[in-house]
């Protein structure tokens, strides 16, 4: 069992986040860089403690003769031997999405440097981009806990962060679905929303393979059908993982870089809005259950919707559906993460599958109409 990271209570096991050999990966990266930057060397190589369980992040500096070191980030497809969170990782698709956002919008994204589509040199597909400067709201311990820079910020500063984050979504959603067809190459006659939900159903089937079904998740899928929007509206480019933990913020609490595009898709604007709001509530709920105040009122669903409407002229609708859908999508990831912990012997397999879903009570309350 791994030791807890700084800031976590003693006795709390950390999640295994990689099975790769850091020294081997460093050697591979150093050799690979010379194939496209012959005179450059890799310095200050680091795998951050916050490295995710999905695509892996490696930080390094690219040192060219006579030049200032260039801070870089390598994003590498997850190791399939590490019980990955998703069934596949299309790094070229992520790279192309970031390029589209950079070309078509004013949304700040890191400058792309290199795409590697041959798994040989690095042991997996990946790409390199410039590293952005700034601060990211932490997941561990969550930014809703006392001591985080966002918790200690003033009400005005948090309001600035919220407003500028909504502006990111408003700007991103100016990209129509037609310009991101590569995100849905096998689209059939269904609507973008129906395809999106069908993909999540397929993901659920993959997650529970060789495991018991989740009554809670299946109930939530059924409830979505009852709440299905009469008119989902136009489809746009959707970030997919639209949360403040995937944004680097500058000193003035505005975004300097928007990260993590592996869940990008096309669909209604409300997909991102629902995810943004619920993922904050997920952390807020965990914080309140631990006896802390958290950040009540921050990223309030109605206020976010109102801000988005003022910015875009589009009044978000069917937010009960999209909020539940966000909670359901997050539950699928949590279930996979739970099975991953079982796989690595960090926890025993529970008798109740739904106990692996940390926000189980939130979904139950949503299904009963008493959460929001």
Automatic annotation (TrEMBL):
InterPro entries: ACAD10_11_N, AGP_Transferase, Aminoglycoside_PTrfase, Kinase-like_dom_sf. Residues 1-22 are annotated as: Disordered. Transmembrane segments: none annotated. It comes from the Bacteria. Residues 71-302 form the Aminoglycoside phosphotransferase domain. It holds the Pfam family APH. CDD domains: ACAD10_11_N-like. Gene3D superfamilies: 3.90.1200.10, Phosphorylase Kinase, domain 1. Coiled coil: none annotated. This is Phosphotransferase family protein. It comes from Streptomyces humicola.
């Amino acid at each position: 069992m791994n030791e807890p990271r700084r800031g976590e209570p003693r006795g709390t096991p950390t999640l295994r986040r990689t099975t790769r050999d850091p020294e081997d990966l460093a050697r591979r990266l150093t050799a690979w860089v010379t194939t496209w930057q012959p005179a450059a060397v890799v310095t200050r190589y680091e795998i951050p403690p916050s490295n995710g369980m999905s695509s892996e992040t490696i930080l390094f500096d690219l040192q060219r003769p006579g030049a200032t070191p260039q801070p870089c980030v390598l994003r590498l497809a997850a190791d399939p031997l590490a019980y990955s969170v998703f069934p596949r990782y299309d790094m070229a698709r992520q790279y192309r999405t970031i390029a589209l956002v950079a070309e078509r919008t004013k949304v700040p994204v890191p400058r792309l440097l290199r795409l590697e589509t041959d798994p040989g040199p690095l042991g997996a597909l990946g790409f390199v981009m410039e590293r952005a400067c700034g601060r990211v709201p932490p997941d561990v311990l969550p930014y809703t806990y006392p001591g985080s820079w966002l918790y200690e910020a003033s009400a005005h500063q948090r309001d600035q962060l919220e407003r500028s984050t909504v502006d990111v979504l408003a700007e991103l959603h100016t990209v129509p679905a037609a310009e991101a067809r590569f995100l849905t190459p096998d689209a059939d006659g269904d609507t973008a929303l129906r395809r999106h939900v069908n993909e999540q159903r397929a993901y659920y089937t993959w997650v529970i393979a060789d495991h018991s079904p989740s009554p809670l998740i299946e109930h939530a899928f059924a409830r979505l059908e009852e709440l299905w929007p009469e008119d989902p509206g136009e489809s746009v480019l959707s970030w997919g993982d639209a949360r403040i933990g995937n944004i680097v913020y500058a000193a003035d609490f505005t975004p300097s870089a928007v990260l993590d595009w592996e869940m990008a898709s096309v669909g209604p604007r409300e997909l991102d809005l629902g995810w943004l709001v619920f993922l904050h509530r997920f952390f807020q709920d965990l914080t309140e259950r631990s006896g802390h105040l958290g950040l009540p009122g921050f990223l309030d669903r109605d206020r976010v919707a109102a801000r988005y409407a003022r910015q875009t002229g589009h009044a978000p609708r069917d937010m009960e559906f999209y909020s539940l859908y966000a909670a359901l999508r997050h539950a699928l990831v949590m279930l996979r993460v739970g099975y991953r912990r079982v796989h690595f012997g960090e926890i025993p397999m529970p008798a109740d599958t739904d106990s692996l879903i940390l926000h189980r009570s939130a979904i139950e309350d949503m299904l009963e109409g008493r959460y929001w």
